[in-house]
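Hi R.,

As promised on Friday, here is the backbone we talked about, encoded as structure tokens. Could you run it through your design pipeline when you get a chance and send me back a sequence?
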């Protein structure tokens, strides 16, 4: 444990391939080196220009809000609207972009560029850095403003998926602002949300992708869904409010957290019914009932079973009958 005055409020922790742990937050950047005993974290010096942004009164240049680790490079966004890249080999910092609003999320794009999301002034595409390139030689970051209708609402969180689609949370129940980097277009996604009268019943925004590439996303307040990329729309996952009448509602559409494991199973911490596990593997078992009846019957009490060389199954039941099923179990 370390005193609060040393690290301040921590925004997050990332670990690199060499075993170093990087802690970033209110009082800057710290590192636990894998090559030295873990006694006290080393504070990484900040460049002189850190904190010279114009994100408003009280902005703190050493207050890092978000981080992204990519190979030997650690990218950081701070409360002054700056994006910095640290080289993990020599700890040299390089400023990639500067905005007038805190940087709350960083996401890698498939073409190698870095996308920065700010709280109030939209998105920025940071330039690609060539080996040895200095800050003065970097091109200007490309600004992507929010749509006028949504520009007044603050962005609290964001997610950049594997297809370079960007999802922004503005703390509007069931609503997400969706940006396609490929087409350069904005769209508002609105999901149905179960009604509530209290703020504590509005779970936070979260998103993740599973081993099949499926994007699972939960807007602020509720509306858990998967994204259908072919039809370009969010689809409620067995929790649509309109499905309640026909019995297809399986669980609350308010999800506190979700996770997909290495087998692709989906784990859900729901608002009302605890922990749910969803398995997508093909069904390996099926039930054969010799005599479908609504009550217990001797005709369904199997006493002997045999599969012959042709794949046929012979079943003897307690009612003195022998039944033969072919390969299709008919």
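Update: got your reply. Pasting your designed sequence below so it's all in one thread:
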């Amino acid at each position: 444990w370390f005193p609060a005055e040393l690290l301040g409020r921590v925004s997050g922790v990332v670990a690199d391939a060499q075993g170093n742990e990087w802690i970033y937050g209110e009082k800057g950047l710290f590192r636990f080196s894998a090559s030295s005993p873990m006694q006290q974290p080393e504070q990484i010096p900040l460049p002189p220009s850190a904190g010279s942004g114009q994100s408003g009164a009280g902005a703190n240049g050493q207050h890092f809000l978000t981080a992204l680790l990519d190979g030997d490079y650690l990218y950081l966004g701070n409360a002054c609207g700056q994006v910095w890249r640290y080289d993990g080999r020599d700890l040299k910092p390089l400023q990639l972009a500067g905005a007038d609003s805190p940087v709350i999320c960083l996401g890698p794009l498939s073409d190698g560029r870095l996308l920065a999301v700010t709280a109030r002034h939209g998105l920025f595409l940071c330039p690609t850095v060539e080996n040895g390139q200095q800050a003065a030689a970097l091109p200007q970051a490309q600004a992507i403003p929010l749509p006028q209708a949504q520009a007044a609402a603050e962005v609290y969180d964001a997610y950049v998926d594997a297809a370079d689609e960007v999802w922004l949370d503005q703390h509007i129940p069931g609503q997400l602002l969706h940006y396609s980097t490929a087409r350069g277009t904005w769209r508002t996604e609105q999901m149905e949300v179960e009604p509530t009268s209290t703020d504590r019943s509005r779970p936070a925004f979260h998103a993740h992708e599973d081993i099949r590439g499926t994007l699972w996303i939960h807007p602020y307040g509720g509306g858990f869904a998967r994204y259908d990329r072919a039809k370009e729309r969010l689809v409620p996952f067995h929790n649509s409010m309109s499905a309640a009448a026909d019995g297809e509602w399986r669980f609350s559409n308010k999800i506190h957290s979700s996770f997909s494991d290495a087998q692709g199973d989906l784990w859900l911490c729901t608002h009302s019914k605890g922990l749910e596990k969803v398995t997508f593997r093909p069904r390996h078992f099926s039930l054969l009932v010799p005599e479908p009846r609504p009550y217990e019957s001797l005709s369904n009490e199997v006493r002997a079973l045999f599969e012959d060389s042709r794949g046929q199954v012979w079943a003897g039941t307690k009612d003195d009958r022998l039944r033969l099923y072919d390969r299709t179990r008919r």
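One thing I noticed while checking it: The first helix runs from residue 4 to 7.

Thanks again,
M.
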